[in-house]
Amino acid sequence: MQLTSDERSMRDGEQGPALAFVMDILLRFCEAIGAPALIPISQAHIDGCLYHGEVSLDFVERLANDGGTVRVPTTLNVGSMDLIHPELIGGPETERIAGRRLMEAHLALGCEPSFTCAPYQTRFRPRFGDQIAWGESNAIVFANSVIGARTNRYGDFIDLCCAIAGRAPAFGLHLDEQRRGEMLFRLPDLPAGWCGSDMLYVAVGYLVGERSRGRVPVIEGLSLATEDQLKALGAVAASSGSVALFHAVGITPEAPTLQDALGGRVPAETVDLTLAELEQALAGLSTAAEGAPLTAVSLGTPHFSLQEFRVLAAHLAKFQKAPGLEFYINTSRETYRAIESQGLSRLIERAGITILTDTCTYVTALARRLDGVVMTNSGKMAHYAPGNIGVSIAFGSLADCVASAAAGCITRNPA
User: Fold this and answer.
1) Which of 225, 255, 283 is the last residue of a domain?
2) Angle at 142 between CA 140 and CA 143, to 5 degrees
3) Residue where a domain stops, chosen among 119, 148, 176
4) Is the domain of 51 the same as that of 160?
5) What is residue 84's predicted lDDT score, i.e. its pLDDT?
6) Residue 344 maps to a domain
7) pLDDT under 70: residue ranges of the chain
8) How far apart are CA 246 and CA 254, in angstroms?
9) What number of helices (H) and strands (E) belong to the chain?
10) Paired strand residues for 371
11) Which residues of 73-96 are buried (b: 16+ CB within 10 A; e: fewer)?
């Protein structure tokens, strides 16, 4: 390993036991992956705030007790609790206590109380070319693809080690040569109803993730997209196939042209997606049949943006929620403060919709009933929720979700 004098000082314990501990882990990690050096990072995002058992607490509290503190601005992913609305969280009291304790232990290390899976929607959004160390799959793919910052997929504990050392291993997507596109996906001529629709980006993301098999995908044929549509594409691609970087030709910053996206090389494989495959991908995200009764609607996986709240508000003019149905939206504290200041939160909550912060309905004991169908416009939640919380799932557009919440059963616009 090529270490600087500061890195050797950290490794040798001259800057305290916490830094020596994380450097030992990072250097062993570098040895395992063949990274020759460490690189300075400008920020980190920590995925380990969600309580998965005693080991989660042991690791973080050891660092805190040893005087550890993060060296770079460090945001936190969702936890097991909504600390602003704790009364909404169900489950055993012991797990609620442990979940809160884990979130507070990260704060003791100097992390920011962001508690969001979408740190790119906060004031800590990185810039093009920044070297960062992020956990949380949807955040990683958004940072790499949409912003052009650079991070690998850092899992629990490694991401926190990077934050405390202010360093990340010099390998993978931190390096120019590893960011070139390797596989080309081409879209067909689409009917007018598909062009620019939110559903298109979910369908494309799901297929790209499923078929990339570890290669950097390039997508040709998308029209100009909103950030929320690219967020949805990346989130489901990261869920169905662990994609950490995609290039959308003419849209994402490292892909102004196809040749730029591929780095001047010929793609190892070219896949022409068909309309039938896109339709099949969307249909496959639902495990419940058309017309099935709903127990809940859940939006905001990844966390709802300010623009998404504005779009939702436009759908609520004549909305009346079906009796007994639960309607949840997950968002960040920062976005929640913004919708409060603009009066959107009052409008939404008057419609019987519960706004959650700090956590997410697909990982936390929030829904009171798990015996029915939950509807969502999130490809990520549709992919994970049946396994994570044991519910049947219905996928649809935002308009479909609102219409279904009013009807009390799955209702979709056939167009």
Assistant:
1) 283
2) 65
3) 176
4) yes
5) 86
6) yes
7) 364-370, 415
8) 10
9) 15, 14
10) none
11) bbbbbbbbbbbeeeebbeeeeebb
